Amino acid sequence: MFIVVEGPNGVGKSTTVGCLAARMRERGFLVHVTTEPTDTPLGRLARDGEETWPGRALALAVAADRTLHVEEEIRPALAAGQVVISDRYVQSSLALQQLDQLPLEEIWRYNAHVPPPSLSCYLHHRPDVLEQRLRARASLSRLERIGSPERELALYDEVYRFLERRGWRQTRIDCRDRDADTVAALLLQEVQR
Ligand SMILES: Nc1ncnc2c1ncn2[C@@H]1O[C@H](COP(=O)(O)OP(=O)(O)O)[C@@H](O)[C@H]1O
Ligand SMILES: Cc1cn([C@H]2C[C@H](O)[C@@H](COP(=O)(O)OP(=O)(O)O)O2)c(=O)[nH]c1=O
């Protein structure tokens, strides 16, 4: 089982992934948690380049990192019988690289070769709450500065419809008035279904 958690900056992806992993481990699953960009030389290069590179270079670097992530980490963990939960995957590129004016079809071409997850979980929330959370951060990345929670939510909605048409298994969870563990419990129900 390969589960990905997606959504705009500050929506609670990392926190929810932690809660979902804990709930699954309690139920006896072997869980491997991972994140994109990865904590590898290629992933760190993409993170460092985000501030200054042209959008297309960043899109390609992130797609290269994802390709290696699949081959060297995700597939081996799945083959070993682990459940893999990734904080960000293809949807992040389809949404975020559009902030750099790249067309959706071009971003899709860079990512079309990686396997679809068993389930992609899109977390969403009210834009004003996300804005408040971003304001609490010490610094913002370039993409956080040029985008906005409202724009990111609109892009993720568009990407959700785009992937529906391509037959991806997805679920969309409203995080309003739900703590991270409640969101994780809802995700687990979806996973079990
Ligand atoms: N469901 C939730 N309800 C309230 N606060 C949350 C929830 N999920 C996450 N948070 C808080 O929101 C902030 C951003 O969460 P984080 O997991 O870092 O988001 P992301 O990984 O999507 O950027 C953190 O301070 C976290 O504690
Ligand atoms: C996964 C992914 C990340 N990124 C960029 C967005 C962010 O600026 C940067 C780091 O991702 P982010 O999830 O914001 O990392 P963290 O919260 O750990 O700092 O990578 C893309 O541009 N496309 C992608 O597909």
UniProtKB/TrEMBL annotation:
Keywords: ATP-binding, Kinase, Nucleotide biosynthesis, Nucleotide-binding, Transferase. Pfam families: Thymidylate_kin. Residues 5-141 form the Thymidylate kinase-like domain. GO terms for biological process: dTDP biosynthetic process; dTTP biosynthetic process; dUDP biosynthetic process. The keyword rRNA-binding does not apply. Phosphorylation of dTMP to form dTDP in both de novo and salvage pathways of dTTP synthesis. HAMAP family: Thymidylate_kinase. Belongs to the thymidylate kinase family. This is Thymidylate kinase. The lineage of its organism: Bacteria, Bacillati, Actinomycetota, Actinomycetes, Streptosporangiales.
